[in-house]
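lol ok so funny story. i was supposed to be doing the assay writeup but got distracted and ended up predicting the structure for this chain instead. priorities right. anyway since i did it might as well share w the group, maybe its usefull for someone
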Amino acid sequence: MARLLIVHHTPSPTLQAMFEAAVSGARTDEVGGVDVLIRPALTAAAADVLQADGYLLGTPANIGYMSGALKHFFDGIYYPCLEATRRRPYGLYVHGGTDTGGAVRAVESITTGLQWRAVRPPVCVTGSPGKQDLEACWELGALLAAEVAG
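and the output, tada:
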């Protein structure tokens, strides 16, 4: 069975809403044959990454960068997963108070080094997420599930 790994740092109600929408999309009945594995960024490990066929990443934008928790995740998996996970699909959602650009650039820099393949542009939300923002998170989860299902 294909596996989608969701790695997230969810410290706020806003990110919780985005996370829940993305998970709901990943688990949609429209896509079958996908095991969705959820790991907080501080506990996700290289073994989780190696066993997955694609990745959904969620982070706040903190002081113009991804969360320290997501950076910790990347620090722990980068070299152990570098060769084995090339060309695997990933998606990203980011929430910021006023800007998400620095966080997106940081994640894209690392995923470029890993040679992961973005399935669509990141879902970036500033302020409170509206209905369209949450739908975009749902769609991102569903798109990644469909991608790993083949």
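The CA atoms of residues 57 and 92 lie 5 Å apart. The first strand starts at residue 2 and ends at 8.
back to the writeup now i swear
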